[in-house]
Design brief:
This protein is of the alpha/beta class. It has a single domain, classed as Rossmann fold, CATH 3.40.50.720. The chain contains eight helices and seven strands, in the order E-H-E-H-E-H-E-H-E-H-E-H-H-E-H. The two termini are 25 Å apart.
């Protein structure tokens, strides 16, 4: 039997990209995976990229898990709380929460030439607001809603998808500040959750071959890139580790986890 059969995960922002890869990585291990997103079948897509939450849910099921799609705009606290409540009402538990939704990337598809936002003083304040509302705040609100179920069970795993941008100064002010806040959010949550048996980590993927990255592949060196499913296998490895609390409060990287747990990138 796959090790995550009977376990329940909630992956925020899984219509495509890293979120979808994480959902499929958990599906490989038999988990029931609830996936949220704004891109739903039959509705006007919020971005020009492919993928819907229903398609992700169907792939989860086809890979041996159980996929459930939830339409949710995580900029709306009420929608976020309702999504968590649905998972708890239907499944009775949340074993893994992955906070993957992010904002502030709108210039990739809203037609803004990148050179027009080369400095933070040239960017509309909405870029900052999007990074902190759809990202940091939504991570916090979702965790607040999900943690009581984990604490009651005495176990659980929270993963914030972050990046090395939190540690650098050349990735943009709003992006870097929001990612650093995401990492510190995890460190503080881990401090309070450790005694309840709940682990919390920040996960740094490498360069991931998401739909948006592949769209710009002619401008990017993909030599050392990784697939979204590789990121998913990293989360699945953490989720199946009975001693995962040794990682709590830490930044963990996909490549380091691959070396530790022995999973590979399917390419």
């Amino acid at each position: 039997m796959a090790p995550l059969v009977g376990k329940v995960a909630l992956i925020r922002g899984a219509s495509r990209g890293v979120g979808k890869g994480i959902a499929l990585g958990l599906a490989e291990q038999g988990a029931t995976v609830y996936v949220t997103g704004r891109t739903t079948a039959g509705a006007a897509p919020p971005t020009p990229l492919p993928g819907t939450v229903e398609e992700t849910a169907a792939e989860i099921t086809s890979m041996g898990g159980v996929g459930v799609a939830i339409s949710c705009d995580h900029r709306d606290d009420d929608q976020t709380r309702a999504a968590v409540r649905r998972v708890v009402d239907e499944a009775g538990r949340i074993d893994v929460l992955v906070n993957n939704v992010w904002g502030g990337y709108e210039y990739f598809w809203d037609g803004t030439p990148f050179w027009e936002e080369a400095g933070f003083w040239t960017q509309p304040l909405e870029r900052w607001d999007a990074a902190f509302q759809a990202g940091v705040r939504a991570h916090y609100v979702t965790s607040v809603a999900a943690v009581p179920t984990m604490v009651a069970a005495g176990s659980g795993l929270i993963v914030n998808v972050s990046s090395e941008g939190a540690e650098k100064t050349d990735t943009g002010v709003a992006y870097g500040a929001a990612k650093a806040a995401t990492d510190h959010l995890i460190a503080c949550m881990a401090h309070e959750l450790r005694d309840h048996g709940v682990a919390a980590v920040s996960l740094y993927p490498g360069l991931v071959r998401t739909e948006s990255v592949l769209k710009a592949a002619e401008f990017i060196d993909l030599t050392d890139s990784e697939s979204p499913l590789f990121v998913g296998r990293a989360v699945a490895a953490l989720a199946t580790d009975k001693a995962v609390l040794r990682h709590t409060g830490q930044v963990v990287r996909t490549n380091s986890l691959s070396n530790e747990y022995g999973f590979t990138d399917p390419g």
